[in-house]
Structures are given as C-alpha cells and as structure tokens.
Amino acid sequence: MVNASKTSDSMKIWTVVNQKGGVGKTTTTVSMAGSLSAQGYKVLLIDLDPHASLTYYLGYDAETLEKSVYDVFVSANDNIHPNASLHKTSLNNITLMPAHMALATLDKSFGSKPGKGLVIKKALDQLQGMFDVVIIDCPPVLGVLMVNGLVAADKIIIPTQTEHLAIRGLQRMLDTIRQLTGSLKASVMTLVVATLFDRRVNACIATYTGMRSEFNTSMWRGYIPVDTKFREASQKGVPINVLSPQSRGAFAYDKLTNELLKDAV
Ligand SMILES: Nc1ncnc2c1ncn2[C@@H]1O[C@H](COP(=O)(O)OP(=O)(O)OP(=O)(O)O)[C@@H](O)[C@H]1O
Ligand SMILES: [Mg+2]
C-alpha cells in the first residue's frame, strides 16, 4: 500500500490503447511516466493487460501478487479502497497498480454485469488528489478491460507503427473510441502517435505522411523513432530517460509528454 501526498489539481488520466499488439503501448506508458517523474510529477501506472508486460517491466510478478487491479474489479461492490492495490516501485514518484494473470478471466466472469465499464473510473475517483497523472496501459483486445481504460480517460493516446496496413485498423480503433466515449464525455482528446518510426525507410515516411493527411489533427506532429535503447531500458526495468537521458527516444517522449501536459496537441 502506498500513501502518496496530496496534490492540488485534479488528476489527469491518460489511456494508452490500440487493438494492434506490439505497437509500443507499454513502452509509451513507461516512457511518459519517466518524463513526468523526472519533472517531479506523481504518477500512477495501471496495468490492464493480462499479459502484464508493464507489471514485469517494473519488477513485479503478476502470477504471485496478492493485490492487483484484478481485486479492484472483483471487489467493486464491496467498498474495499483501491489504495490496497497500489504498489511502490523503485522509481521516484512512480506507483503501480499491477496486473494479475486472473485478469484474463474477467471478460467471461464480469462481461454482463451492469456498470462493468465504470470500475476503473470509479476507483480513480477514490484516489483523486493522490497523483498528478494516471497512465493506463491497455491490452490489445477490445473487451471489458479496454473499455474500462477508455471510459476513464480524459486523453487517449494511440501508438501506431507507420505501416500501410495499420491505417485501416486505426480507423476501426477511432470508431470504437468515438462510440464508447461519445455517449459519456464529448471532450475526450484522442491522439495517434507514430512509434518505431525509421526515417531511413521510404515506406515509413510515405505511410507517416499518409496518416497525417488522413487523421489530420488527431495525429501528433512528431514521432517516436526506432531506438535500441528502449529494449535495453526494459531489460533494466527503468524508463528510457533514466537509462539514457540524451537518447533520441527519451527526447521524443519528453516532447510528447510535455505537449500532452500543456494541452498543446
Ligand atoms: N521506438 C522503439 N524503438 C525500438 N524498439 C521499441 C520501440 N518501441 C517499442 N519497442 C520495442 O518493441 C517491443 C514491443 O513494444 P511494447 O511492448 O511497448 O508494445 P505493446 O504495444 O505494449 O505490445 P502488446 O500489444 O503486446 O502489449 C518491445 O520489445 C519494445 O522494447
Ligand atoms: Mg503492452
């Protein structure tokens, strides 16, 4: 359990999502947390993926954890405070609500309950004031977990590889988000972020340009470059800016994070 001190403004909630796997969602979550924590912001990371990459990244074993975000779902009606599922990390200012393998069973056990999409939003209402920014890492599957992540968000970040075939999937993802968030809040900001971008590859540049004209203001004007430091950072269990603050990858995520903070995107 973690006792974070209070901050004054209301918490920002950013959800990182894409139905496609391996596009850099978890890397984006950890890297933005690294940028925020270096600036002194208190960050809560929530791992909604049953594969628990974020949880393992930050040094916890999702098979043996006693308390996790799974408990938040199963005890949603029992008045158990979500505080119990918070875990300290070895990183300054970064707290984790980890995943558990049992999350994989939620769609079956929980899928038809009323209010099933609001569990995380309500839990975060109870944690209000403890953190400056909450970042939610979603699984690449449209189900009860992803819906919870989307419904709680005030900003939605969609990492995407600059591959031609990704464009149709992206359109589907944006339609899903519009349907889900449209009925709840009109003002959810959605931002497509090009990741794993290799500026030496012509096909990457052509797809990036095509995406910018198709998704227009929903697309971030920058990009996250391919950088081998990301893999190294994940092996060491730290954000890229801790391993290599001067790397191109760290600079790119600093820029993205600061623009999100300032509502400049
Ligand atoms: N910009 C980058 N440059 C180089 N490698 C990257 C970059 N971004 C991510 N990676 C690597 O690509 C792999 C997939 O990234 P990541 O786990 O963040 O994707 P994901 O979208 O969360 O995947 P999943 O859908 O399986 O959860 C990881 O090994 C990660 O280290
Ligand atoms: Mg992931």
Structure description:
With 265 residues, this protein is of the alpha/beta class. The chain has one domain: Rossmann fold. The protein has eleven helices and seven strands. It has helices spanning 25-38, 53-57, 69-74, 106-110, 119-126, 144-152, 166-182, 202-215, 229-236, 240-243, 248-261, and strands at residues 12-16, 43-47, 87-88, 94-97, 133-137, 155-161, 189-195. The chain has a seven-stranded mixed beta sheet, with helices on both faces. α1 (25-38) crosses α11 (248-261) and α5 packs across α6. The longest helix has 17 residues, at 166-182. It is globular and about 55 Å long. The two termini are 35 Å apart. The chain binds adenosine-5'-triphosphate (ATP) and magnesium ion (MG). Magnesium ion binds at residues 25-26, 49, 53, 137.
CA-based gyration radius: 17 Å
Helix content: 25-40%
Largest sheet entry: 7 strands, mixed
Query: Spatial order of the strands in the main sheet?
Result: 3-4-2-5-1-6-7
